[in-house]
Amino acid sequence: MTPQTQITAPRDDDDLAQYARLAHQSFAIDFDDLDVLRVHGTVRLAVSGSRVLGGVTALPVRQFFGGTELPACCLSTVCVAADQRGRGVARRLVEQAVREQRESGAVVSSLWTPSMGVYRRWGWEIAGTTSTYGFPMDFFVRDALRRGALRDFAVTELMDPTEHPLHRRLAADGWNGPVDRPAWWWKWKYPQADPDSQLFALAGADGGTHALVGYTRKNEAPWGHALEVTDYWAADPAAVDLANAFIGSHRSQAVAVRFRHGVLPDPATLLWGSDQYSGSHQHWHPWMLRLLDPRGALVRRSWPEHAFGRLDLRIVHPDTSEEDLLVTVEAGSADVVTGGTGRLRIPVTLLASWYSGALSTDRLLRRSAADDATREDRRLLVAMSAGSRAWLPDLF
Hints:
18 strands, 34% strand, globular
């Protein structure tokens, strides 16, 4: 008799080793993050007897939406053995992980995936797109020289990075999606044991930190290496010059510069200061968002001060269940109570895409077939979505 499949926490180190092998087989990458994920995340496995059939990791974090930190859950490393796919194992894993995170207070959940249709059926929707950008080293040297940015500036390598106030300020400023990275996140991405992964703080003449630049190195043929930028945060145009000058200072050995997917928002704001386009970019798969608690997600984030009015919503969930909410918005916040007539019928997946800033109000209403939307509904939804753009610069 075949043992029944159960969803459980890892029972021992062998379970985790099997999960790591499945992750490697599923994604064709070395999976060396287990020590971090099992300490700071919640790992759930599908097991049958002594065999691990699949796994998922939920990372409890906080994400910025509308300038406010929301309790969130990032799903990572969802994988199932090849002979077990199509049997509902992944769905059971994901639903168990999400249920636990929702019960712990998470109101939104994010993930990266090329399998949009699968996760859409489970309640997620596209929340943003991203690209990998590549530039020749001359791009940075030329622009830095032209602007006179190769002046004296202080560079400090952050050997033991923790939360950084500049990152928190810039991540919250006008973006929907960035993770408010806890100390362990920085140590995970920039481990001291990896000499090729480095993070630098750049200070200007006033002594204050104006930019953060992180990178790793990738060998290039026939010689030299490429800088693969993993973090690029600049407080203002002068700080962009500062960061570019620092990247350009690596020109003796670095022959190219690549920005890992997500590091720059789409389209890359870095291009605005350049006279001539000399780079390349390649689209990567999107990130997706699920509103685990629509009421909580609407109430807990900040909204533009000029947005005011009332929405009479009927939220439609993937299982076809419905939830009526009366949303009153004023003075930068929303009050949401259960009830109303449900005049404005919107699938929760499309609401999530609008919530992130990826979907405009017109497209939200058109795709929802919300024919009963009034002029005041449109005005309020447009006002609520103003001022913030979708961007998830964090890989997990």
